[in-house]
Amino acid sequence: MLPGAVTGWDLSAALALADALGVPPTATAELLPIIEAVMVTKLNQQMDHSHG
Fold this sequence. Notes:
The chain is mostly helical.
């Protein structure tokens, strides 16, 4: 946890959402880490830009 930064997602919630939406578990396991990494990077860049 870093004040003013996103370090990751609640993966339990993301997995539950994927399951509820009918996303196959194999696809979720393969894609979720990649999606999370890109989103964390982009969110932090956006926060830096808006505060900088």
